Amino acid sequence: MNIRKNQARLSRAEKRRFVNALLTLKRNGTYEEFVTLHSTFFLSDQDAGSRVGHRSPSFLPWHRRMLIEFEKALQTVDRRVTLPYWDWTQDRSPASSLWAPDFLGGTGRDLDGQVMDGPFAYGSGNWELKVKIDENPFLRRQLGLSPRAPELPTKAEVESVLAIDEYDTEPWNSTCATGFRNHLEGWRGPNVHNRVHLWVGGQMATGVSPNDPAFWLHHAFVDKLWAQWQRRHPRSRYLPAESTDQVRGFRATLPPWNDVTPADLIDHRRHYFFDTDFFPFRGREDGAANADGRGGDGRGGDEDAA
Ligand SMILES: [Cu+2]
Q1: How far is 300 from 109, CA to CA, in rounded Å?
Q2: Domain definitions of the chain by residue range
Q3: How far is the CA of 194 from the centre of ligand 1 (A)?
Q4: Burial of 276 (0-12, 13-18, 19+ CB in 10 A)
Q5: How remote is the CA of residue 279 from the centroid of ligand 1, in Å?
């Protein structure tokens, strides 16, 4: 059973296994396929054209499938590995353990934004970028330095987006004034998903964002927010039900896989669980045992209680 955990609660061994699986996929070339996949769709997804991965209702199912594929690839290296999620409403500082040298490494240096520590520093010899938008072969980050994203989204901001009842609305792109999806993606309202990309900076703020392993942890959390929204709005449905010229409906196949529809992806439990799925009735103040049986730290385990 795949259980995706909050990255803040991973053991040292779990972090090591996740990092090792990433480095193996990098070495054997599989990793670049995912960067290319994302970049290709990022460039072709347009407000006035066909759009699948971004700026459209299928933003959430498309990334869910991408993450499932990536998680499977990690598991070919080590079947115990699952994608951790980064709850940036909680771990919201460049000093968070997420950015320590034993996990993702930290922010980039002033000179050129190059990440200098951790397993994904260019100097480690294990993380040379191949799918690039500039000449630089090194991973860059500028945590919290973007004037457009000085702070990560807050819990209150996320709550305001989770409160939106309707999944999506016409014209099904980045200009929708209402709708959960466009607010979560970040084109309207407090800017949730997009802002986290900008806050990390470097490649994360571009179409080749999966070059930074932070991409997976960020999107695993965005994916989790979708599941939380579903739980809060049991009568809301994926929209549009039918496809339009440019947008995928509920039963339309999603490229590039073409063997999966939003309907197939609507329930994450067919594919994996979140650590928080196991205590759906826990109260907010409850600091009891987490899904892994360890003593609670009161974090992360209560969001689905609403
Ligand atoms: Cu993203």
Answers
A1: 31
A2: 3-305
A3: 6
A4: buried
A5: 28
Beta carbons within 8 Å of 190's beta carbon, 6+ residues apart: 153, 154, 157, 160, 161, 183
CA of 294 to the centre of ligand 1 (A): 31
Phi, psi of 174 (to 5 degrees): -85, 0
Q: What pTM was estimated for this model as a whole?
A: 0.91
C-alpha 295 to ligand 1 mean position (Å): 32
Q: List pLDDT tens digits, range 142-170.
A: 999 999 999 999 999 999 999 999 999 99
Which residue intervals of 52-179 are DSSP H helices?
59-77, 155-162
Two structure tokens written together for 206: 């571009």
Q: What is the pLDDT of residues 109-121, one digit of tens each?
A: 999 999 999 999 9
pLDDT for 80 equals: 97
Asked if residues 262 and 252 have their Cβ atoms less than 8 Å apart, the reply is yes
Estimate the crossing angle of helix 30-44 against helix 59-77, to 10 degrees: 170
- What's the CATH class of domain 3-305? mainly alpha
The Å distance, Cα 288 to ligand 1 centre, comes to 32
Task: Supply 249's token pair.
Answer: 């409906």
CA of 293 to the centre of ligand 1 (A): 31
pLDDT at 97 over 90: yes
How many whole angstroms from 185 Cα to the centroid of ligand 1? 8
Q: Tell me how far apart the alpha carbons of residues 197 and 219 are, in angstroms, rounded to a whole number.
A: 10
